[in-house]
Design brief:
289 residues; mainly alpha; 13 helices
């Protein structure tokens, strides 16, 4: 307390990864490992994980800085937006350094074939940021198109860092793989879940709340069912743990969706990230030694 003014309360430690944009890189690195193990990548260097973490972090910082600028002092501005706005200059400096470091490692360490994948990724990322700029930040509509691009970009960017080391396969093989498709859908539903929960939280209408819950329950059920079928019918037993992990992620999001009234929106954001990291434990348990 200074001059009779109470200091702003400190944010709880469990919220720091979200405020610092470290949650998404953690999810990406975890699933990159699952992709590499599932696809039997014989050589997967540490710098691949470092590059992915840096690039994802830079993208998320850029997205949150953009959102903070578009939202301003709007009531829709969340803690992560206010935090990035408050420390804007620091984030810009660190993101610039991280971006240059990632570019250097890509040029010197990653196979040149990565650039054919980067074209697809750049298309998805550009589409996402274009929609973020031209979509009105105050709209009450759920930005499904933007969420689809965001989830697809995240999933493709994660998977390609493993797939590029499968020298006998190409981009088409990645795009049509069941593993990528399921993970992309899980990412899209994870991102959409936050918007649906915020939308339901703002509305006093119980019918709107029920509709928002159903809008997530239905696709999560379909994804979980598909993952279970793929796991049971997999000819290559090495891919089964991956689909069980997808099933676990869908189940955890479904549980959060049904119990969301018990948590604050900040807690739900963190728990939604946990729902994408925790499935790794199932993967390791099913995979065995």
């Amino acid at each position: 307390m200074v001059d009779g003014v109470t200091d702003a309360p400190r944010k709880p430690f469990w919220l720091l990864p979200n405020l610092l944009s470290l949650d998404a890189p953690l999810v990406a690195v975890v699933w990159l490992y699952l992709f590499a193990k599932t696809w039997g990548v014989n050589y997967h260097p540490v710098h691949g994980y470092v590059v992915l973490a840096l690039v994802v972090w830079v993208m998320y910082v850029g997205d949150r800085l953009l959102d903070s600028a578009l939202l301003g002092d709007s009531s829709r501005s969340q803690a992560r937006h206010r935090f990035h706005k408050k420390h804007r200059r620091k984030f810009l400096w660190v993101a610039g350094i991280a971006g240059l470091a990632a570019l250097g490692m890509v040029l010197w360490k990653i196979p040149m074939a990565i650039f054919s994948y980067v074209i697809v990724e750049a298309f998805l990322v550009t589409g996402f940021f274009a929609m973020a700029v031209f979509t009105a930040p105050e709209t009450e509509e759920i930005p499904y198109a933007k969420n689809i691009l965001a989830g697809a970009a995240f999933a493709f960017g994660t998977a390609m860092v493993a797939h590029v080391y499968l020298y006998d396969r190409g981009i088409r093989d990645l795009l049509f793989s069941r593993e990528f498709t399921c993970f992309a859908l899980l990412c899209i539903l994870n991102i959409s879940a936050i918007d649906l929960w915020e939308h339901a939280n703002r509305s006093p209408d119980p019918e709107v709340k029920a509709a928002d819950e159903l809008a997530l329950t239905l696709p999560l059920t379909l994804l979980g069912t598909a993952a279970l079928v793929f796991a049971l019918k997999a000819e290559d037993h090495g891919s089964r743990p991956f689909f069980y992990a997808i099933l676990t992620g869908a189940a955890l999001l479904h549980i959060l969706n049904r119990t969301r009234s018990r948590f604050s929106m900040e807690s739900l954001r963190v728990l939604a990230d946990v729902a994408l990291v925790a499935p790794a434990l199932v993967f390791f348990a099913v995979s065995g030694p």
